[in-house]
Design brief:
Blueprint: H1 3-22, H2 53-63, H3 86-98, H4 109-125, E1 133-137, H5 140-155, H6 160-163, E2 171-176, H7 181-189, E3 197-200, H8 210-222, E4 226-233, H9 245-254, E5 258-262, E6 287-290, H10 292-295, E7 303-307, H11 311-317, H12 348-382, E8 387-394, E9 397-402, H13 406-419, E10 425-429, E11 432-438, H14 446-459
Parallel strand pairs: 2-3, 2-4, 4-5, 5-6
Antiparallel strand pairs: 1-7, 6-7, 8-9, 9-11, 10-11
């Protein structure tokens, strides 16, 4: 394929994308297939000779869309959304066409400087202080790992980078059981170890108990261990739990510990001032992560990490050999020193298009609708005999179960997802199997949300 052919096929792809999105409601949300069904349709060996694009396209259309779970479906209520607003898709096409590698300022000056400004725009949108800086990662897992590595090195006076962890004191990190599994993965990958992630008890509101945190820190110090950091939850994945950010940060700061707030999903809602009391005090955190690719409309991947002072993270992750130096220039920001990968995509472009194409008020309106519709659906389900609301809505997330027990609840979920009208998922809470409902699809309507009620009534 040459660039003339690419132009023609790109036009065809745009028409296909339009038809795909306008026809999503007619598709089942989740592919009704079994493992291996897609692979069985593909040749076992690669082609020796070039194949016509018409043939490739026909195979794509025949095999791929029917075998996908449709994350942009307006009745996707499972997990958290991975939205892709049309303006974001357009920007991604342009970024893909330029195919820049933005590891350094000099390799892509516009990519670096647009990223700086977009992080500043988002900080303002979320009500964070002007002094906050930040960068864009692929996902919250990577941002959290960067924060955990920074906790590790700060506690070791950065000796771990050169000496390794052998012979170093035993480090301890603290979080509640409501935090995402990416925190567990980060302590494993960082060499701190799962046993050194201390899960602090939670109160009746599912928030980490500040007093229990303080007790754990002091007990570890008395035992010769070294407390290194605290990870706080602002909208947990399971039931949307929020730690009492201000109270917990006060304990961590009094003990000299680095803090990271995981607001991967719920952070987007903070563009609405009325929701900010949920994370009151967050401006005191050292690190905050939220994913515009979840609820804000920037397509995956796009995760923003805010830093009160980036120097500790740059000191942890930065490495500048001579071939990466920018000659004949004053000191510039090279974002590869703020993140784990050296290579970086131009993710900021889709944020620029997105924020301008919809405006903060347009995005706020969507989030407010999702929260209101989730609450309406929850209230309607609560009127159905035999249905228990297990956890009330946290923003747009709530859970419910059948009074008959776990087996009946799991069977209902299987029937709903097999039918394909809506897509839900599950978690376990307080020992129970519960169904999660999370409203957040970019183009969903109230009618789409209430389709959950119809599915439950029809399939119970």
């Amino acid at each position: 394929m040459n660039h003339d052919e690419l132009r023609d096929w790109s036009k065809r792809a745009a028409d296909w994308a339009h038809d795909y999105h306008t026809g999503l409601r007619s598709r089942p949300v989740r592919a009704p297939l079994v493992p291996g069904a897609i692979a069985a349709q593909l040749p076992a060996a690669p082609p020796e000779a070039a194949e016509p694009m018409e043939t490739i396209w026909a195979d794509f259309d025949r095999i791929v869309p029917p075998g996908m779970t449709h994350w942009q479906h307006p009745r996707f209520f499972a997990y958290f959304p991975a939205n892709a607003a049309p303006a974001s898709m357009l920007a991604e096409q342009l970024a893909n066409a330029m195919a820049a590698q933005g590891m350094l300022w000099q390799t892509s000056p516009a990519a670096t400087e647009v990223e700086q400004v977009m992080v500043a725009w988002l900080a303002q949108a979320l009500g964070l202080p002007d002094r906050v800086r930040g960068t864009i990662h692929d996902s919250a897992s990577t941002a959290t790992l960067a924060a955990v590595l920074t906790m590790r090195e700060r506690a070791l006076n950065w000796d771990g980078l050169t000496q390794g962890l052998s012979g170093q004191p035993r480090l301890r990190l603290y979080a509640s059981a409501e935090t995402h599994s990416s925190i567990d993965k980060a302590v494993r990958v960082a060499g701190i170890g799962q046993e050194n992630l201390v899960k602090i008890p939670t109160d009746a509101g599912h928030a980490m108990k500040p007093g229990a945190l303080l007790g754990a820190i002091r007990a570890d110090r008395a035992a010769g261990r070294v407390p290194a950091g605290v990870v706080l939850c602002a909208g947990g994945t399971g039931i949307g739990a929020f730690d009492r950010i201000a109270d917990t940060l006060a304990v961590a700061k009094a003990e000299g510990l680095y803090t990271h707030v995981d607001a991967a999903w719920a952070g987007s809602a903070m563009i609405c001032p009325e929701f900010r009391p949920l994370w009151a005090g967050v401006e005191g955190a050292d690190s905050i992560v939220f994913n515009p690719h979840k609820w804000l409309g920037a397509q995956f991947d796009c995760s923003v990490q805010f830093l009160a002072d980036p120097l500790a993270q740059v000191r942890t992750l930065g490495l500048r050999p001579s071939y990466l130096e920018t000659l004949e220039a004053d000191e510039v920001t090279n974002f590869n020193e703020w993140t784990l990968p050296l290579g970086r995509r131009f993710r900021a472009l889709k944020l620029w298009f997105l924020l301008r194409a919809y405006g903060l008020e347009g995005l706020r309106g969507r989030i407010r609708n999702h929260v209101a519709w989730s609450q309406e659906l929850c209230a309607a389900l609560a009127t159905r005999p035999g249905i228990e609301i297990v956890t009330a809505p946290s923003l747009s997330l709530f859970t419910f179960a059948l009074a008959e027990g776990d087996a009946a609840t799991a069977a209902l979920l299987e029937r709903i997802n097999a039918e394909g009208t809506v897509y839900l998922t599950q978690t376990r809470h307080a020992g129970r199997f519960v169904i999660r409902v999370q409203v957040g699809a970019f183009d969903c309507t109230r009618e789409d949300v209430m389709a959950v009620l119809d599915a439950v009534d029809r399939l119970r």
